[in-house]
Amino acid sequence: MRATMMYGAGDVRIETVADARLIETTDALVRVTRAAICGSDLWPYKTMEHSETGRGMGHEAIGIVEAIGADVRSVKVGDVVIMPFAYSDGTCLFCRAALQTSCIHGGFFGNGQVDGAQADAVRVPQADGTLFVLPVGIDNALIPSLLTLADVMGTGHHAALAAKVGPGKIAAVVGDGAVGLCGVIAARRLGAERIILLGRHPDRIALAIKFGATDIVSERGDEAIERVRELTGGFGAHSVLECVGLDESERTAFSIARPGGAVGRVGVPQDETMPASRPVFYSNVTVGGGPAPTRAYIPELLPDVLAGRIEPGRVFDKVVSLEQVPDGYRAMNERAAIKVLIEF
Ligand SMILES: [Zn+2]
User: How far is the CA of 275 from the centre of ligand 1 (A)?
Assistant: First the structure.
């Protein structure tokens, strides 16, 4: 089968590899029909040290179950399934607490241990806890939006929950990538009265406004902080969604939260330390978030996608074949694309 392999910064290749196969009795084998390139794939694309063996990439997919292990009960051959970016058993203490990204038998796809989903097929560990069976056909027009439930829409929702978005509140979203845009959808869905997007790219801003953003701040650093304060009567936002993970974006996020407010972080932090510790302390700002348990959110978000009330699939603005995936990485890295959909 073909798979996307990364050998170092900027070095993505489509190669023929050994076919994915069942190993554990709790595995399922999924033939991938749609996958995606994630903003988080761009971190190794920018920084990965050269590797002789390469790393199988990809952690978002929809596909068809081709085989199941002897102990799999909740999915069957032929099912159309979503594969969230983390696998999880669905039964441990953390899964039962809806924190599947901390599953004691869990892990992450495409991280070098379990193979990636930017491939013809993928082995899914803990299939019963991981896979979600979809009630639609594989060519349904909603498939791109459903694919976002594997990661970006669930991650935006997680940011909004951690930021305590609710009716009447002012939300601010730091970052205009696919997760930030889904954060706008999530903030509106949870009832935010105003949604301030901090972003600079005209096409992304236009989409954010369609998704429900009411104000746009394109300044950076201290000017951005000042502008958000102006827009919020001098106090800042109740709920801030940090969807980037860089030192500057985190500093901005923490600085625009009003006293007693909350910041939900879903941008993978690129530094060990958190900036703005002292202002966060003196403002009694709650800081939450982390890797989103997107598996937990599929049942909640699915009805809104199926009914067309939210359209997160609009973040896909470039479609490639598997052979064209290296071009997809380039386009996202150069910000020529918001998010790339891979069609098989
Ligand atoms: Zn678990």
Answer: 32
Q: What is the pLDDT of residue 112?
A: 75
One domain, residues 133 and 40: yes
How many angstroms is it from 126 CA to the middle of ligand 1?
9
For residue 90, report the distance from its CA to the centre of ligand 1, in Å. 5
The reply to whether 102 and 225 lie within a common domain is no
Same domain, 75 and 193: no
Mean pLDDT by 10 residues, the chain (344 residues): 97 97 98 97 95 96 98 98 98 98 97 91 98 96 98 98 98 98 98 98 97 97 97 98 96 98 95 92 98 98 98 98 98 97 97
For ligand 1, the distance from its centroid to the CA atom of residue 243, given in whole angstroms, is 26
Q: Looking at the 3D structure of the chain, how many domains does it have?
A: 2
Domain enclosing residue 193, as ranges: 153-289
The secondary structure of 88-134 as a DSSP string is: --S-SHHHHTT-GGG-TT-EEBTSSSB--SSBSEEEESSHHHH-EE-
Q: Are residues 134 and 198 in the same domain?
A: no
Measured CA to CA, the distance from residue 184 to residue 156 in angstroms comes to 8
